[in-house]
Each structure stands twice: as C-alpha cells, then as structure tokens.
C-alpha cells in the first residue's frame, strides 16, 4: 500500500470518528470489539480486535500458532464499525456467529462482528447477487486496508526452525497449518 493510500485510509477512519458520533457504532467505543474476515475457499482468517477486547501487550507477548489477529485502538475500531455499517454490513448481516466450517465452493467469504450487542455475520458466495458482491467487496477492502496498516509484533511458534522462512513451506497469516 502506498503512502498516499495509507494517508487516505487514516483520514477516512479519522473522519468517521466524528461522522458516526450519533450512530450505534459510536456507542461501542470502549467496548470489546472483534471483527473477523474469513476466506472460506482458502481457509485464510484475519482478525481485528479493539484494545478492550484483546490486551495488546499480553496478546503479542505470548507465542501463537499464527499472526492472524491484530489489535487496534477502541476509537479506530468504533470508527471502522461505523464505516462497515455505512457501506452496508448492517443491512446484510445475520445475527449470531458465522459458521465455523463453510463450503468454499458455495460460500466464499464470511465477515463477522462481535460487540456489545452480540455477534452478527455476513456470508457471500456463488448464489449472491452481483450488487451484494460489490457491497461485500467494499467492506472486505476496507477491512483489509485497516488490517494491513495495523502494526503487529506477534511472536509465532516455530517448530520448523529455519524452514519456517521458506515461503512454500509455511502458511500466510491467518491460514491453517498443513
């Protein structure tokens, strides 16, 4: 992501803080928020958590199997939730958690939000309309832009030694071990 794109994302999120002051997302500030995006075709999973949900220092200090979760400030996560709603997540979301296992040939992506009001998810797949795909892609791209600019210093379990750094031998962030 270029420096200009990062600046635009920061401005967008910063501007959303004021814009969503009257929305339900603003009421979520200071509450535990976890937003996850899963590619059901590849098994990749990415998570963005608020500091109220995941203690940044404690989480990054412990070695994990993967580096899928990144921790962001409560204010940014609240603005992010407001932006997802503005883009259409709330109109398409269903109550409850996304299914743990999905068919990658039918259901392609899952976006899930866990907050003070519970969990909600949106599944998109081969039967979804082109308009729904466009809306979902905007939400997914917003998620991935914030995910990519969020700094993470996660310690990762490394049972494979030097082979861990072989790109073909290890999964990417959020992918399952083989």
Identify the notable features of this structure and list them briefly.
178 residues, disordered N terminus
Write the layout of secondary structure elements.
Layout: H1 3-19, E1 34-39, E2 45-50, H2 56-61, E3 69-72, H3 74-87, H4 89-92, E4 94-95, E5 107-115, E6 118-125, H5 130-149
Parallel strand pairs: 2-3
Antiparallel strand pairs: 1-2, 1-5, 4-6, 5-6
Helix pairs in contact: 1-3, 3-5
Structure description:
With 178 residues, the chain is α+β, with helices and mostly antiparallel strands. It has helices at residues 3-19, 56-61, 74-87, 89-92, 130-149, and strands at 34-39, 45-50, 69-72, 94-95, 107-115, 118-125. Strands 3-2-1-5-6-4 form a six-stranded mixed β-sheet. Helix 3 runs antiparallel to helix 5. Residues 3-8 and 15-28 have low confidence and may be disordered.
At a glance:
The protein has 178 residues and is α+β, with helices and mostly antiparallel strands.
Distance between the termini: 29 Å
- Tell me the radius of gyration: 17 Å
Give the helix level as a range of percent. Answer: 25-40%
Number of helices: 5
Number of strands: 6
- Which segments are poorly predicted (pLDDT under 50) over 5 or more consecutive residues? 3-8, 15-28
Shape, principal axes of CA atoms: globular
- Major beta-sheet overview: 6 strands, mixed
Overall mean confidence score, pLDDT: 80
User: Strand arrangement, largest sheet?
Assistant: 3-2-1-5-6-4
Q: Output the structural class.
A: alpha+beta
Query: What amount of the residues lies in strands?
Result: 15-25%
Spell the H/E element sequence.
HEEHEHHEEEH
């Amino acid at each position: 992501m270029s420096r200009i794109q990062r600046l635009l994302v920061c401005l967008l999120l910063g501007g959303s803080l004021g814009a969503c002051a009257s929305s339900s997302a603003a009421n979520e500030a200071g509450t535990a928020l976890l937003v996850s995006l899963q590619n059901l075709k590849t098994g990749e999973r990415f998570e963005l958590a608020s500091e109220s949900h995941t203690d940044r220092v404690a989480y990054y200090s412990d070695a994990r199997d993967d580096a899928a979760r990144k921790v962001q400030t409560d204010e940014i996560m609240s603005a992010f939730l407001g932006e997802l709603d503005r883009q259409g997540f709330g109109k398409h979301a269903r109550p409850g958690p996304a299914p743990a296992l999905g068919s990658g040939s039918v259901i392609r992506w899952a976006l899930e939000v866990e907050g003070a009001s519970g969990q909600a998810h949106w599944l998109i797949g081969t039967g979804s309309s082109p308009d729904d795909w466009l809306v979902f892609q905007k939400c997914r791209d917003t998620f991935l832009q914030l995910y990519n600019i969020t700094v993470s210093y996660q310690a990762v379990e490394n049972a494979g030694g030097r082979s861990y750094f072989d790109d073909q031998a290890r999964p990417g962030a959020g992918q399952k071990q083989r």
